[in-house]
Amino acid sequence: MLHSQAPLQSLGIAGLGTIGRALARVLDRGELPGLKLGAVTVGNVDKAQNWMRESLSHPVECVSFEELAERNEWVVESAPSNLLRQIATPALSRGRKLVVLSAGALLDAPDLIDLARECGGQIIVPTGALLGLDAVCAANEGRIQSVTMVTRKPIAGLQGAPLLVEKGIDLSGITEALCLYRGDARGAARGFPANVNVAVALSLAGVGPERTEVQVWADPTVTRNTHSIEVIADSASFRMTIENIPSENPKTGRITALSLIACLRKVHAPLRVGT
Question: What's the helix, strand, coil split of the chain in %, to 5?
């Protein structure tokens, strides 16, 4: 007996940076079952159209945030964090699936979660450049005593962070590791919005941003974005470290785009592994 294939669901991408382009290529090649690239929203339309003509077999239109939400069942946010609300509101109000990479911006927009609940939408935060979120989610079904994350990044991956600008910190001359921040995940997200979305994802999987302890280090001796987490709970205690190779954007590890693609691959998979 033949089974008819379900119609493809359309996915729109907000932002064609390093991650958005990687996702667009995979969708264009038809490598994500059940999904097709529907449209994109970008800041520089001419640049995006030129890239799509050169890189994609099937270029799509550049549209507004409203049109992106109207045309697509799925919307992926891979844009600067200050644009999250403009991307999320039209998508969630239409009951769309919204995949958020700027997880840190969610902490200042809890009403978006309410909007998703009211309108039948859903906010999905991929694992990104971290590891062990399945274990943290499972441990949180019991009782977690503490969650700590230590991030170490090369100098290039931290340049321009708001906390550095605010405090006038110049990293160009440092020769040994320097602790730039020690506090909770909420403060880390505000000080380093392009660097520690992983800390926010960790906090949302576990005990929340106020109880998730974070350290951010600038380390001229490392060449990879390194995150170490330690969780102590009544069900298990575990420590994990991941060293991510930076992408063409030094603030973003190569594995971040791959995590997004892996997340979307589960949408129509006949077998799903992990929580």
Answer: 35, 25, 40
Q: How far apart are CA 268 and CA 262, in angstroms?
A: 12
pLDDT value at 14 more than 70: yes
Count of all residues that appear for the chain in the document: 275
Which residues have a catalytic role annotated? 227
- Using only C-alpha atoms, the chain has a radius of gyration, in whole angstroms, of 19
**Residue 144 per-residue DSSP state:** E
pLDDT tens for 84-137 read 999 999 999 999 999 999 998 999 899 999 999 999 999 999 988 788 889 999
**Tens-place pLDDT, residues 151-207:** 999 998 898 999 999 999 999 889 999 999 999 999 999 999 888 888 999 999 999
Token digits of residue 70: 């109207």
Domain around 138: 133-251
73 and 107 share one domain: yes
SS3 readout for 124-139: ECCCCCCCCHHHHHHH
Instruction: Output the six-digit token pair for 22.
Output: 């990687």
Q: How far is CA 58 from CA 11, 48, 68, 108, 205, in A?
A: 14, 13, 17, 37, 37
In a domain, 270, yes or no: no
The span from the CA of 96 to the CA of 65, in Å, is: 13
